[in-house]
Amino acid sequence: MTSHTEPSKGTAPPAYEPSSLDKAMDDAKALREATSGLRTDKKTLIRIIPAVSLNPPQMALLQKTYTQLYQRNLEEDIRGYIHSNFKDIMLGLVKGQTWSDVNRLNDLILEPSEEKRVFTCCEIIFYRTQAKLQAIKELYEQKHSKPLAELVRRCCSGHTAQLLVNYLETPRCEDGTDTLDTASMRADAQLLHQGIWRQGQEDMDYVSDILARSSRERLIALIDEFEAVYRVSLGKYIGEKTTGTLQFTLRVLLSWAEDPIQYARDCLVNVLPVKNGVAECSAVTHMIVWAHWNRTMFEAGKMRLRYTTSTNMRMGLEKGLYDDSYRELVFKIYDGKY
């Protein structure tokens, strides 16, 4: 005999949890209504897109459902009805991190500052996994019919470009097991010392090859080995022997290896978009899409920035953004309130 437990008086029935398809249909209908009027209802887009984008299968289902219901493409409707800065963030969320990274790389052609071009390449090339780098390279080549390495060489110069291209193209272990090869550690430390000092083409070939094939754990071991042999930190040696974007690139790589939180903080400083009380919207857009897809890194960087400088990034953004909908979207992502 099966017993049935009656709900106690005054207890509400369990809340109905909509299925993925139910949610996709509700969201698709809301988004179509939001983009089909004379004025786009941006608040609906802000309410739906950021949260759904963090679940790629749900985002794919939403796009498929939207097309099935209306014989229309969600991306094209967003692209066609919204102004550029708001639209660029939305497309970055809908299309995913790989598309966002490729879009950032595309924009480097128009960036006049070489240091900013180099930093964007560093942030993407050093911080992505091998699988994500492969996806970025494939999408870039699909869109432009040429390898990403060509863009890196065009946006960066000399030994800087050589190091970044090698890091982009060289397979490396990602689990730290390459630190077990202690026999080569001393030899690699010596080659780094010699190559950074001489900076001839062959010398820098060795330097970029050593760094490009090393996991983060092996980079840390090399830093320790270098200091043990030469009684000077590798970072200080780089500061004494190199200049310009090569020095900057090497220091960014070491920062990522030694202290990921400091690296996150440096990422924010270098993309800090507020200058003289005015926000450069293209920089804000890239930063906020980057924050969405790199939440852990972004939050760690915000905390370190807060405790190490007087910079109030949020206050600067509040003063520098004037479009209400764009500001609302920026701060929704900035605060992580999805």
Automatic annotation (TrEMBL):
<protein>
    <recommendedName>
        <fullName>Annexin</fullName>
    </recommendedName>
</protein>
<dbReference type="GO" id="GO:0012506">
    <property type="term" value="C:vesicle membrane"/>
</dbReference>
<dbReference type="InterPro" id="IPR018502">
    <property type="entry name" value="Annexin_repeat"/>
</dbReference>
<dbReference type="GO" id="GO:0005634">
    <property type="term" value="C:nucleus"/>
</dbReference>
<dbReference type="InterPro" id="IPR037104">
    <property type="entry name" value="Annexin_sf"/>
</dbReference>
<dbReference type="GO" id="GO:0005509">
    <property type="term" value="F:calcium ion binding"/>
</dbReference>
<keyword id="KW-0041">Annexin</keyword>
<dbReference type="Pfam" id="PF00191">
    <property type="entry name" value="Annexin"/>
</dbReference>
<dbReference type="GO" id="GO:0005737">
    <property type="term" value="C:cytoplasm"/>
</dbReference>
<dbReference type="GO" id="GO:0001786">
    <property type="term" value="F:phosphatidylserine binding"/>
</dbReference>
<dbReference type="GO" id="GO:0005886">
    <property type="term" value="C:plasma membrane"/>
</dbReference>
<dbReference type="GO" id="GO:0005544">
    <property type="term" value="F:calcium-dependent phospholipid binding"/>
</dbReference>
<feature type="region of interest" description="Disordered">
    <location>
        <begin position="1"/>
        <end position="28"/>
    </location>
</feature>
<keyword id="KW-0677">Repeat</keyword>
